[in-house]
Amino acid sequence: MLQAFTFCAEPGAMIHKRLSGAGLLAVGALTLTAFTAGCGGSTTRATPLVTPTTASSPTTTAKPKPTGSGTAAGHAPASAPTGASGTQTTEAQLALANQELSQAGVALAGSDGAINGADVNQAKLQEGSAP
Amino acid sequence: MNRATSKHLALVVTAAALAVSVVAVSVVAVSVVAPPAGALGAARGSAASTAAQCKGTSVKPLVHDEAVRREAKLAALVSDLQARRDPFGLNGPQISALRAASVGITALDSQIASTCYPTLAALRADATKLFVDYRVFWLRVPQTHVIEAADRLDEARSRLAAVAGLLAGQVGTNASAQRDLAAMNQALSSADAKLGTPPSAGPSIVAVAGLQPAADMSNDTAVLRGAHADLLAVRASLAEARADGLKVLADLKA
User: Fold this and answer.
1) How far is A43 from chain B (nearest CA, A)?
2) What is the pLDDT of residues A59-102, one digit of tens each?
3) How many angstroms away from the CA of B44 is the closest CA of chain A?
4) Which of A45, A90, A119 is the closest to B228 by Cβ?
5) Contacts of A86 (CB under 8 A, 6+ apart)
6) What pLDDT score was predicted for residue A128?
7) Which of A21, A24, A85, B78 is the most exposed place for a label (fewest CB within 10 A)?
């Protein structure tokens, strides 16, 4: 990963040149290219939109996109989540927040009956007295 | 006496004998079934005497109805609490108190029903226990609802806290979202001050949970009123926190 970020500071042509010199396989080159693309977007947004929990998921970390789209979800916290994966994660988080807010509203409405029943001024009127 | 006359006389004698037999049987039957005139009078006197000695028999059904009403209410309260999560650990002890009250009321109801009270005052003394010793409606009902309301409000509170955590990772440099999220967290803190945070309930809720039936309900009433006011405040704070959370969502989508 450190090597990949080192490449980020260099011109793309140099990266490809060094890659060729190292004699890496084509798959490896694609991977590093993906890292480079991810680093390239790091200056567009200071705050990551993907939570660390999602970003550190073992299913996404350092796993290159088969399509070579240039987005690596596993690097989103340290780089730019401008790709489709980051956006989807943000939307999922906001959708979850919206859902929890709805549930909180239901819980609040459910408390109204209990709060009304806790009114001692009303309750004591039901007590009565011995005949 | 010729032969025809003799036959007629025999028939008359037979009929007379049958009539005598019927009368005899009837007399025997009456003597077996019916008590002597003196005994009947004594029984009537005894019943009248018992009725005169046991006071308030006409009031007992009213007392029984009150006992049944309380038993039904206590069972409903237990059912309400059993369905809840019990984040503050107050539901279990309250359920035990409600069940103990129900058992006591059932026993008192049976005692009153089977006791011959020599005076109305004696009956009234026992019947008063049904009201004063248990305070089902004056204490147990609002007390249980305070505990239930705290339980329900904590559910809302925990969901809102989860939302605040989610939104904290989303607001970024969005100033409006940051401001609304701060307001949300402030509202949640205000709710926590009165509601408490599990497993520790707020002070007024804990005070209510510890109340016992009393002849003088002044203190109980004051404590219950304080908790009710706190619950209303918590409800308002959480509603505000929810509104702020919705604002943050709108800020982020804008």
Assistant:
1) 14
2) 333 333 333 333 333 333 333 344 556 666 788 999 999 999 99
3) 30
4) A119
5) A48, A49, A50, A71, A73, A76, A80
6) 83
7) A21
